[in-house]
């Protein structure tokens, strides 16, 4: 090869290498930016906050409780924007795709409690003021639904609450779903929570003193106590565990595949 052509070949190769390197860096940067500051003005991360709605943090593996603020994908919502869904037109909604056809203004959604093989709620369920399932009292430390105290996440008169099943009163309740165990009581971790080291993906709901609702799905496996601490770190004084293993979420930049029972959705007030 002549020196001149050899020089041109080497120069071209160097330029292509720089271009490819720049493309990879740009793609990586854009990927991070999409998580930290996506277009939806409701998105929030630990490093860049535009609003106080969506908690969308970079995936971080849980090593200790100090990292709990960076393990969940969730939404901070006003009670008036929250709805619960199970069936539509007599058919179980079952998925986020179907939910979006039923409620196209949904901004965020996640599964709303444990369910049976037929996707029916395991315990109490109230939708649009109608009680479709009654309270189920169950005390069995070998299964999550039997851990104490059992609780109810409810919406009534524009306010949200997490109460024990003994405290629950149905009057005026518009939406409610039962699960167990309660994770946070009076601002502290429920002392009856297992000390198990078992970690799995979990989702739950917490209530802050200002009335806002924290809906969260862990990105990685966490223990009950780590998950409870997450809600405390978010300022919640009460929180309820909803489900684990099968937990999933829908948001502006995420839509998990799966089949669920009750779904909790955040839309317009």
What does this structure look like?
Helix content is 19%, strand content 31%. The protein contains 3 helices and 20 strands. The protein is globular and about 40 Å long. The chain has 269 residues and is of the alpha+beta class. InterPro entries: NAGPA.
**Could you say which overall geometry the principal axes of the C-alpha atoms support?**
globular
Question: Radius of gyration, rounded?
Answer: 22 Å
Report strand order across the widest sheet: 1-2-3-16-15-17-13-14
The count of helical stretches stands at 3
Number of strands: 20
Give the fraction of residues assigned to helices: 10-25%
How are the SSEs ordered, and which strands pair?
Blueprint: H1 3-36, E1 43-44, E2 54-56, E3 72-77, E4 82-85, E5 87-88, E6 91-92, H2 96-102, E7 108-111, E8 125-127, E9 130-133, E10 151-156, E11 159-164, E12 173-179, E13 182-185, E14 188-189, E15 202-207, E16 213-218, H3 224-233, E17 238-244, E18 249-251, E19 254-255, E20 263-266
Parallel strand pairs: 1-2
Antiparallel strand pairs: 2-3, 3-16, 4-20, 5-6, 7-18, 7-20, 8-9, 8-12, 10-11, 10-12, 13-14, 13-17, 15-16, 15-17, 18-19
Pfam families: NAGPA (PF09992)
Keywords: Signal
Signal peptide: 1-23
